[in-house]
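In response to reviewer comment 3 from the previous cycle, which asked for concrete evidence that the modeling workflow produces usable outputs, we include below a single protein chain processed end to end. The sequence was submitted unchanged, and the resulting structure tokens are shown without manual editing.
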Amino acid sequence: MLSNRSTASSHAESDGEVTQYLTFSVAEERLAMSIDAVKEIIETPVVTRVPMTPDYIRGVINLRGNVVPVIDLGARLGRGPITLTKRSCVVLVEVRVGQDGHVLGMLVDEVRNILEIPFEDIKPPPEFGSEIRTDFIEAMGRVDDVFVIILSVDHVLSMQELAALRKLSQEAAPSGTDVEP
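The workflow returned the following structure tokens.
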């Protein structure tokens, strides 16, 4: 599953470079994603629930005039919905579908820090033993003596789900508002 990292990985391997990952918590589990996908981290805003959407779609937010869908990452990963606390936040990410990029928010329990993980400490995802769907896992990053699950942001949502999010955002946007799901 390291295919979407192949160019960066071979470059990092040859130069001995490290890759940066944003780490965060969901249901007391430490997860990570490539810092390259992260656009912004914001405090949890008012989220407008949209009827008849899957449970893991928390709703939409108004981000500087744009309607942005918010995914409850706890619910999406089968951990149950996230209970909002002072530390909860929304990580805005860009998800690629073909040549198009779409911004969406991922609600997490807490953002931890940015880790630099050397290429030699990045391992392929396990074939079994994880409670997270294996297509959601890009790799496992070894930090000290523990592994951090590195999510594949582009796979956390399927293409059909992205199309549904785009339609949802367009339907929720007031007329004359730019929509960027």
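The longest strand covers residues 18-26. We consider this sufficient to address the reviewer's concern, and the full set will be provided in the supplementary archive.
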